[in-house]
Structure formats: C-alpha cells, structure tokens
Design goal:
Blueprint: H1 2-12, H2 16-42, H3 44-56, H4 58-64, H5 70-90, H6 93-109, H7 116-126, H8 132-155, H9 157-171, H10 181-190, H11 193-213, H12 219-238, H13 251-259, H14 265-268, H15 273-286, H16 289-295, H17 312-322
Helix pairs in contact: 2-3, 2-5, 3-13, 3-15, 5-6, 6-8, 7-12, 8-9, 11-13, 12-13
Length: 336
C-alpha cells in the first residue's frame, strides 16, 4: 500500500483524496473477485448475490475508503482463494504458481497475511491435492512475490533496523486473548444478524445434504471457506495487535459462505424461492447495526474502530502549524 501511495503522490500530489483512491480501487476490485470466487465455488447466481451484498455492506464500504493495509490484504486473500479453487478443480501447475504469488502478495500487503500459507497447506492436505511437485511450484510463486521486499530488508541497514524495532514492538505487546470483542463486532457490525445466522445455516444444510445423498458436492467448497474464516478469526484473536479493521478480510469469505445455502436442494425445491432471491440482499444489509442504529438510538451500536472520528486530522494539522518544530506533543491515543 505504501509503495502504491508513493506512486500516486508522485503523479497527483499529496492529498487525502489521492491517498483514499488507492484502497478504494482495492475495495472495488474485491467485489469483482468475490463474484469470480463465488461463481467458481457455487455458481453464477451465488456469485451475483454475494458481490451485490459485499458492494452494499456498510463494514466493507466504511473501511475500504480508509488508507489501511487491511484493504489490499482483503483483496489478495480473495484472489488467493480464487486461484486455490482453480487449482483444486484443475490441479494445474499454473494455478498452483498463481496461488503462491497471491499468497506472497498477502504477506507483503500486511505481515499477518503469512497465515494464508498454512491455510493452503491445510486445505490441500484435507482435499488430497497436496503433492510435492505442485507445492514446490506454489513456493516458487510465493518467493517471486516477496523477493523485492525481502531484498530491501536484507540490503538496507535502515530497513533492517526498522524491521527489528517493529518486530520487537509487536512481540512485546499484551494480547487480550479472552476478549469477545471480535465475535461481537462480527455479529453486530461486520456481518449483521441475518448474515451471521445464514453462515451457520448454510454450513449445516450443505453438510447434511452431502451426508444424506452420499455426495461430495460443495463439501470441499465449504471446507475451504470454513478453514479460511475460522483460521483468520482465531489468528486475529491471538494477535497482541488487535483492531476491528482486521475483520475486513473476513467479510467476503463470510458473505459467500452465507449465500451458499442457495445451491442446496432444500432451496431449489421451494415454490417461492424467487422471493428469497429478492429479499436476501436487503435483509442482510438492513440487519446490520449501521442501519439499526439509525432507527434505534442506542449508544453501543456503531461502526468499529472510531477511525473516522471528526476533527482528528484538523487538530493534528493545527498542532503542526502552531508549535515549534522541535516541540514534543503528548496525545491521548496512538492514532492521534
């Protein structure tokens, strides 16, 4: 993100709007790749509905307009899952390679992106597609993606120092492992109540149907999404560095998973299934706290992180313009 911002600033000047355009592009492209992934997993209908839900989901919109590393990370997570799915279907080396490249891009988007590597290994092992030659191809793609940035860290002394200072800072932070904050944020703000329920319903319906019919249809697709959603959530929960913005990487996966129940025989046998298609998107969107808080004036209902708190930037600029250059200012929060 910082590299792309430097190019944008060099071309168009240093302005907030210029900076915001970079994550906005990633956020918009995430909608398109979500369609491609959902279409590959469950068909065109689920792809269209999933991408429409993501395009209108307040959590995705609010965070995709902020200059955060998590926005490109979310894009590359979905791109990674798309190539993993193509690899699972075809088992071609080219898709193994691109899975590795997109996994490397997850890492250089934000260091927590490294978790996609064990996700790939776990999924390939469970679905019996983990072959040594193809895994080597995956690692080659991964290496090509990260070599430019790793080289800078190894070559430049200031980069080495910055890396170790940052790593030491992160390692020594206190974790809040037992906090229910992420679960609450996911249900209330990120997914909303209807989508949270549909995720559970979709997983149960598809697994029950697979068992009753003795079929593997859609089982591997569900496994991929559940492994990704569960691993990312647990990983973020265990991190000493925590923020609601991390959860943007879970949104596209959760949306696809929540809409996947549409492919089940339970739905296809319904006479009025078109009503479900028409009502699904507004029900998911309107069951989010972003809209509920407009109807019910409850203080606890909010969109997360307070990153959009008014006047922070104006205060910071006032301090910059009205204090000596060698002055130190003590602020109440790290974000300030």
């Amino acid at each position: 993100l910082q590299s792309l911002l430097s190019v944008a600033f060099a071309l168009f000047g240093i302005h907030d709007d210029v900076a915001r355009m970079v994550p906005v592009i990633f956020g918009t492209l995430s909608i398109f790749v979500t369609y491609l992934l959902a279409k590959e997993l469950f068909g065109r209908k689920v792809g269209l509905i999933s991408s429409l839900v993501l395009a209108l989901l307040p959590f995705h919109i609010v965070f995709s307009r902020q200059v955060l590393l998590d926005v490109p990370l979310s894009f590359f997570v979905i791109l990674f899952l798309y190539f993993v799915t193509k690899f699972k279907i075809s088992e071609r080396n080219i898709y193994s390679y691109w899975s590795g490249v997109s996994c490397g891009l997850c890492l250089i988007s934000k260091e927590v992106g490294i978790i996609m590597l064990p996700i790939f290994v776990a999924y390939a092992f469970i679905t019996h597609t983990l072959k040594l030659r193809k895994f080597v191809v995956f690692l080659i793609g991964f290496a090509f993606a990260i070599i430019p940035y790793v080289s800078l860290i190894l070559i430049r002394r200031d980069a080495v120092n910055a890396f170790f200072i940052y790593a030491n800072f992160q390692v020594n932070r206190e974790a809040t492992i037992l906090s229910a904050r992420y679960a609450s944020t996911l249900i209330n703000e990120a997914f909303g109540y209807v989508l949270s329920i549909l995720i559970i319903v979709s997983v149960l319906l598809i697994l029950i149907e697979c068992k009753s019919l003795g079929s593997r249809k859609y089982r591997d697709q569900i496994i991929l999404l559940v492994i990704t959603l569960g691993t990312l959530f647990l990983f973020y929960q265990l991190l000493p560095s925590q923020g609601d913005r991390f959860l943007i990487t879970l949104i596209p996966v959760g949306v696809i998973l929540g809409c996947s129940f549409l492919v089940t025989n339970y739905v296809s046998r319904l006479n009025k299934r078109k009503v479900i298609y028409l009502c699904l998107v507004p029900l998911i969107i309107l069951s989010n706290n972003f809209f509920i808080s407009k109807l019910l004036p409850v203080d606890e209902l909010r969109i997360s992180d307070n990153l959009g708190t008014p006047w922070k930037r104006e205060v910071a600029l006032w301090i910059k313009n009205n204090t000596p250059s060698d002055a130190n200012i003590l602020t109440a929060q790290m974000t300030m």
